Amino acid sequence: MSVRKNRLDKRHCAFYGYDGNGERTYKLTGTASIDQYNAGEETFHMNFNDAVIYVNPYFTITPRNYTSHIMNGSQRIATRIETNGLTNCIDTANTGAERIANARAYMQTLFAQGIELRPDTTATFVTNAGNSYDELQWQCVEDDLAWDITLQCDSNLLLTTSHNDSTFIDTISSGIYYYYTDHLGSASWITEGGEPVQYIHYMPYGELWRNQRNTTYDERYKFTGKERDEETGYDFFGARSYSSAITSWLSVDPLSDKYPSVSPYAYCNWNPVRYVDPDGRYFDEANEGTAQKIETELLTKKIYSALGDGNQMRELYYTWKDIKDMRNDGKNEYRFELDKNKPGTTGKEEDGHQIITMYSNLETLDETVAHEVRHGGQTARGEISYDNNNQIQNYDVEKEVDAYRAQWGWRGSPLQIPIDDGIHPMPVPANANYLDITNKLIKSITNGWLDKNDKLYNFK
Q1: Domain ranges of the chain
Q2: Can you list the residues of the chain whose pLDDT is less than 50?
Q3: DSSP reduced 3-state for 249
Q4: Contact 273, 267 (CB under 8 A)
Q5: How far apart are the first and last CA of the chain?
Q6: Which of 129, 174, 379, 431 fits 81 for a cystine, CB–CB 3.0-4.6 Å?
Q7: pTM of the predicted model, to two decimals?
């Protein structure tokens, strides 16, 4: 239970639900009041009158509408809001007594984890505006502390999305809002129909400096693309929450024991202008330094390729995007390692998450760097993955075509890789440009220059 008190002695209350991976599944929000007796005993009355159900990372539901998020990998491109688009997901009972009975059963399910709820009394709640709602009161007991929770039993709050007969109406659209982000992925400009509707500018640690709007729409996903909870002002990152007001995490880094020299509450090692933290875990500075060296080399190559082959410019851009996607991947950890003789990419399970290691010639930053970075990007986008036995999944010849084209783009000249050309008795140089890198070429690559029958890949 999260309760926030402001200086006007008004209270906001919120209840959050999470799945086994720490991902938020729902939240209930509202207001609260306190009754104090004889300057001693206090009774809390919490009126939950709004809710959000997080069906998946791309879909959320509120009593007023549902929202679908259009993503490119981990980058949010647009948000589509549909009004009145859900049926059979709210309580349509006609009488207050029926709604109260349904609320009792539903809320007991939500609150059952760790909190005992006892039905108390029923009443009718009348707002200052004169609106009347059915109400349900609970006696909430936890750790020998008792307080009353007053639940506003408006039928729109009863978002029973677990119903198998829930249906969707995809015809009533309120609007599509497009995102224009800065280098950290923070929403800067929001447009609808080509017209700007919101401009957001941030202080270095994410506190709002400017938030200008010409409509009622207010983007929830702000700093680095994370949801900012209106009821608390905190940004929810997944593993933990962050306060831009105090420039600090609100709980300890789950990987803090690995980095004793860094504060477990430090956001991005106190460098928020350069780094991002996808899920509230510590950002590895050593590997970030390597990524920045690769980005610097990419910039140099892009300048020289600007007047050259458009395919090379495009591949260099994709390599830059590979690094960005790895930074924004909240599920896997990425590492760069030096190996001059045997480049490759591996994945292994460690401390409850996958570690993807890219081996290449980091001393000279040769073309093998781009090849393995492409495999890292493919992992970040979910194009390939690793199972519990560290075996690669969804890997095929197309993934290698993609990686060799990244390698060609980095090199800027034909690839000199050994292949079996079907003519000569020994492997010969491929001398391959962008359009030469095909499925057939990848299948003909040999494992060295001595035996043309020793193929590097076993694709069929």
Answers
A1: 2-171, 285-413, 414-460
A2: 1-10, 85-90, 112-122, 135-172, 282
A3: strand
A4: no
A5: 56
A6: 174
A7: 0.55
